[in-house]
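Hi R.,

Here's the chain you asked about this morning:
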Amino acid sequence: MTIIDALDGLDAVDWAELQHAYGSAEDVPDQLRALRADDAAAREKALHALYGNIYHQGSRYEASAYAVPFLVDLATDTHTPDRAAILALIGSLTVGYDEAHLPRGLDIAGRRAEVEELRAGDREEMRRRVEEWVDEAVDEGDCGVREMRLRMFDPDGSYEYARHELAVYDAVRSHIPRLLVLLDDPDAAVRTGAVYALAWFPEEAGQIVPRLHSLLLEEQLQAVAVNALLAVALVTVPDDAETIGILRQQLGAEEPLLRWAAAVGLARLGAADADVVAILAASVVDPPAQDAPGVPFQGGDLRGYTSVALVAVDRTVAVGALDALLAGLARTSGPSAFAVTSAVLYVAFGGGRPRPLPPYDELDEVTRKVVHGLAELDASTWRWGNFIPYNLPTDRAACRRYAGLIE
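And here is the predicted structure, written out as tokens:
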């Protein structure tokens, strides 16, 4: 494919009739063309604009699916500059904010069922179920949250959002053979971008998993191999003995980052033994890389990814690793604390949320330890926590009073 062919057919799409986040998508063709401009600043501006238009805060729109084949054309054309950045956009369009799907991977079968229910479901019956759920609230705070959900109830709008999201997903899915070719690309960043995009297609595991296995046998660069380990665990089925065997081999790797990725993958596949749990617990406290920009999963937040992977193994295991989780939480700040906070809250409450919240002294030892750890977080971190579902105090001072740390 030549650079001239990469955008062949772009003008055949009636972009003005398509919608993105800000209305008509008539500006998208010029933005796509600018991705191959000679000027780096122009390319960066175009990419930023596309993120805002067709992937606005994680949302996908009517025009998003139409843009996918042209983005793939550009990413697979070796004459295109910044192909890794384009692949990052393709990956984002595919999965949205990936933390919603980690550590278990994308449940696309469940998502398809939800979209069909939104399409065909009886709107009045849906509203009745939400109203009944509101009536089941056990206290004023819980009722307030549920009433807010009722006020936002919009099945038609939810269906449109979900329909566009699924259309983009399937548009990328149709180009999987072309993305697989990029696993052999000489540019390591391109290989990594392709690996990440392929991690979200369990329906295509039959063609993706063998290629990732081959990549792992041949890949010389740690940065690519780490992402391939994470991806193959996400896209394969839990009882895949070959994948589990490949991951177990990497538990003994010299490089800590490879051992970490293998442990996360084995936890996802339900194959976590004592060695895996030990690696995860240690990595919550001291991740093998404090910040890993070469790991797109969970935005490179290794501590956060480790925390949710550890909790997903088994709640009993997570309770045993609570001290490690709390130590890791104490070392986080700002939005990076969100994933670890979610993990420790799960350890404390599991699926049960006490309402009303009992006095602190009446909580069990595990829950008291978690609440105390949360109360010790700095003020700037507190605004990133979501404690409402657990019926905990929603501001730091109130939580510290509840835990008896201040009068």
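One quick note: The chain has a mean pLDDT of 91.

Cheers,
M.
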